[in-house]
Predict the structure.
Amino acid sequence: MRSHDAPVVIIGAGIGGLTLALLLRRRGIAAEVLEQAAEPREVGAAVGLAANATRVLADLGLAGGLARASTEPSGAHLAAFRGWHPAVTEMIGAVPQSPRWGLFAQRPLACWSRGRVVLLGDAAHAMLPHQGQGANQTIEDAAVLAAELGAERGLTTGPGSAGRGDLAAALHRYTARRRVRTRQVQMLSWAASAELHLPDGPAARRRDARLPGVLARLAWIHGYDVLTSRPGDSGRASEWRP
Ligand SMILES: Cc1cc2nc3c(=O)[nH]c(=O)nc-3n(C[C@H](O)[C@H](O)[C@H](O)COP(=O)(O)OP(=O)(O)OC[C@H]3O[C@@H](n4cnc5c(N)ncnc54)[C@H](O)[C@@H]3O)c2cc1C
């Protein structure tokens, strides 16, 4: 299929582009995915997916594939830590590689779309990894964008059938549903990057004292069901304090 035969062209076969393509196909919207890389390549150790994203993938019928693809810790790189405290080797063993990475943050974007072009995933809201939510938020983006494009009936019937006004409305609703939530997760990841690297002392002790409540405080992230969310439900934290 050539680009102009599909009503939607997706630039990038990352987790966002591929999830969006699958979700659109299920709604009867053909999409062509264009990828610059000659072949898929692993970057980094692994990606941790949380319930807010796995429920989207499960809904696509991918739960079994996900379970089969999940990695088991490899012991090969533990050699460098032989003799260290078991707590350290256990932690190192929990990841299959131990490379060093540069961490780059992006300021929240004021605008996610122009004309018929719209951003999702890291292109819209690249974030620090300290909440493990970059890919999870990207999958949520794909779910909302597919739902909003699917709600515009003209898009499903073939090339050139999408009225510009309808598309603009869909992109506006998509952005409205995603911008606040992803911005809050971005800011929370930034705050966690500082919290997780506190030196021993009073500030670190105050942080440790807050740890027992952390899952409840993050329930607005992991408990969010993007599949049942509706326009007007931004998925934002009800009490916002980064
Ligand atoms: C080491 C590491 C660990 C991480 N761990 C986690 C984690 O545990 N949990 C989590 O949720 N997130 C994690 N993330 C973040 C997560 O990987 C990203 O947020 C997510 O992959 C973003 O998906 P994406 O589809 O937006 O972008 P990408 O995955 O970057 O995909 C973009 C694709 O577009 C292609 N592309 C770019 N420009 C062009 C072009 N001009 N033409 C064609 N193709 C193009 C690229 O080659 C790439 O394939 C981690 C990231 C790293 C680096």
